[in-house]
């Protein structure tokens, strides 16, 4: 075996070793890498409900009630739903049907939020196209 | 063919030929960037959700792509250097690192500026943002390690190993939005799906990504030429250039 082939194998082993280490590391920390829990995760007891955690889902239709700076709404993943209480400034994208991620505590089944962030999807289109899609959807 | 390559590889010839190549990288960059910005800021329509704010994508996305592409260049050139002992590969990696770091920084900053109005936060520790920040640290570590040795050979070898070790971060960045739930949205442009449903938006994005590729080519070649001058500073042809410069 030439020296060059030796070095080739060493580099290949380095890449494989690092990949394996990366894979195992990610597997070990998988739970910690989740940024938020869905309402179903919380219902199934997967979320650390004893302390502050993040709940993510859609703002349910016709659920937003405002009272001054206080706002109440439901977060849903269409399987399970949680009532959220929040007082503070909401992001511009916040509306019914919008994805949001909120940080807070679960107290007696109600999520007391300290922060609400908007999550948008990867779709980009002009408003007219979005309207047309919405119309086509309601026609079906 | 081999003779031609050898002739090109001599530092003097490389220096002269590359001077003629630079305009062919610089001019496309300027043209693509100007047309791309016009397309992105004026021709492309507003977004149904984000209004005008989404236009920062035309800088943010190409910068993020370049941050990963240049890291790949670092690792591959490092590997070529380690295996075939080609000095030029080390030079390419070394001069590319600060350019890659700059693109990473640009992606992070434009992302923060975009995140504040849309998400409601400058920064969150989700998997996508965190892994991109780690990429910036990898670039900084690579540059530091390269400068930490007196012996340039040792420096090149050590930093190349680091670059290859850091390679594991690239798939993590790319798949972070798929493997874990994150605040950052999924990929809008991938091999089997394009979620940008307007031709003008997509054209602007592609023009800007091409522009950034040419910008990297220009900067990289200019920096390699600098390196050649420094390493060949004792040769007669470099002395001649320096004398004529006055």
List the helices and strands and how they pair.
The complex is a heterodimer of chains A (140) and B (246).
Chain A: H1 3-28, H2 39-43, E1 53-59, E2 65-67, E3 70-76, E4 81-87, E5 99-107, E6 110-119, H3 127-139
Chain B: H1 2-9, H2 11-43, H3 57-84, H4 87-118, H5 127-147, H6 152-166, H7 169-179, E1 189-190, E2 193-194, H8 199-231, H9 236-245
Antiparallel strand pairs in B: 1-2
Helix pairs in contact in B: 2-8, 3-4, 3-6, 3-8, 4-5, 4-8, 5-6, 5-7
Number of domains of chain A: 2
The spatial strand order of the largest sheet of chain B comes to 1-2
Q: How confident overall, as mean pLDDT of chain A?
A: 90
Largest sheet: number of strands, sense, barrel closure of chain A:
5 strands, mixed, barrel
In CATH, the homologous superfamily of the largest domain in chain A goes by the name: Nucleic acid-binding proteins
Strand content of chain A: 25-35%
Mean pLDDT of chain B, to the nearest integer, reads 93
Q: Percent range for helical residues of chain A? A: 25-40%
The biggest sheet of chain B amounts to: 2 strands, antiparallel
Shape of chain B: globular
Beta-strand proportion of chain B: under 5%
| Largest interface: pair, residues per side | A-B, 41 and 41 residues
* Number of helical stretches of at least 4 residues of chain B: 9
Cα radius of gyration of chain A in angstroms? 22 Å
* Uncertain residue ranges of chain A: none
Structural category of chain A: alpha+beta
């Amino acid at each position: 075996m030439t020296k060059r082939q030796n070095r080739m194998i060493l580099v290949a082993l380095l890449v494989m070793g690092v990949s394996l280490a990366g894979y195992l590391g990610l597997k070990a920390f998988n739970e910690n890498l989740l940024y938020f829990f869905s309402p179903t995760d919380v219902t199934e007891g997967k979320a650390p409900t004893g302390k502050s955690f993040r709940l993510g889902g859609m703002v349910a239709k016709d659920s937003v009630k405002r009272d001054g700076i206080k706002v109440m709404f439901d977060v849903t993943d269409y399987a399970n739903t949680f009532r959220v209480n929040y007082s503070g400034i909401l992001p511009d994208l916040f509306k019914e049907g919008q994805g949001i991620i909120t940080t807070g505590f679960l107290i007696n089944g109600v999520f007391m939020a300290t922060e609400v962030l908007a999550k948008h999807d990867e779709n980009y289109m002009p408003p007219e196209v979005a309207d047309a899609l919405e119309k086509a959807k309601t026609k079906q | 063919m081999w003779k031609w390559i050898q002739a090109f590889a001599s530092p003097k010839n490389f220096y002269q030929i590359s001077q003629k190549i630079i305009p062919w990288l610089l001019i496309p960059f300027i043209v693509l960037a100007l047309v791309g910005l016009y397309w992105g800021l004026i021709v492309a329509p507003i977004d149904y959700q984000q209004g005008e704010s989404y236009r920062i994508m035309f800088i943010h996305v190409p910068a993020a792509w370049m941050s990963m592409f240049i890291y790949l260049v670092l690792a591959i050139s490092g590997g070529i250097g380690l295996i075939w002992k080609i000095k030029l590969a080390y030079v390419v990696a070394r001069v590319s690192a600060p350019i890659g770091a700059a693109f990473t920084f640009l992606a992070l900053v434009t992302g923060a500026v975009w995140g504040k109005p849309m998400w409601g936060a400058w920064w969150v520790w989700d998997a996508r943002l965190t892994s991109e920040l780690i990429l910036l640290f990898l670039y900084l570590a690579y540059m530091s390690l390269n400068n930490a040795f007196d012996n340039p050979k040792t420096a090149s070898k050590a930093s190349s190993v680091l670059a290859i070790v850091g390679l594991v971060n690239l798939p993590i960045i790319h798949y972070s939005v798929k493997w874990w739930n994150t605040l950052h949205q999924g990929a809008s442009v991938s091999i089997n799906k394009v979620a940008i449903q307007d031709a003008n938006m997509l054209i602007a994005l592609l023009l800007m990504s091409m522009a950034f590729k040419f910008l990297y080519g220009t900067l990289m070649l200019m920096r390699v030429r600098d390196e050649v001058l420094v390493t060949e500073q004792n040769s007669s042809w470099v002395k001649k250039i320096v004398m004529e410069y006055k």
